[in-house]
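Action item from last week, closing it out:
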Amino acid sequence: MDLSAAERQRLCDLFESVGPDAPTLCEGWTTRDLAAHLVLREYLPLASVGAVLPPAAPLTDRVQAGLAARPFEELVAKVRSGPPLWSPFRLPGVGSRANLAEYYVHHEDVRRAAGGGARSDAPELDGPLWSTLRSSLWLLTRHVKGIELRLVRPDGEELVAKQGSGPVVTVRGTPRELLVYMHGRQNAADVDLAGDPAAVAAFRATRLGV
């Protein structure tokens, strides 16, 4: 089982454990809404574009609400079984690359809303998540202005997340925690920020993620 598939199964196990009405870190969403989002993403990808294209958001919200009205057990079973045969996520290599961050972050959305802290059980995720983070920074940091943003792993490897001529802000943490932070879950991530106090404060107030 590849890493993204393992995260999928862990999330589904957690869905079944906490039930359909548990909170998540996704504002306004319960676990039922999150499961519906994942089904929408893999089974109806054209209807999910509102997640990144605001003009299409009403369509996405309407279709997702319809899915959320289905039995929770049905939604979880669909998520657990993986994308359907016609999904682009079935293409060789695509699903693994595209789904690892998606399922890791959403697993953390449920875990941490339930009081869980930073995980120490999957260090093998750090390398792949670091690569995924590198390739998605253009989207995750699109609202960051006026600073140079650097991400630093515990081993000292550094990634310039946002080029800039302003003051430098550094975020330090494991790739797993940096991914959670850069996906907009700043209050839940175990990271350290350093830099000019005014620049750090402005960065903390900046919207991150998709």
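Closing note: Strands lie at 148-152, 158-162, 168-172, 192-195.
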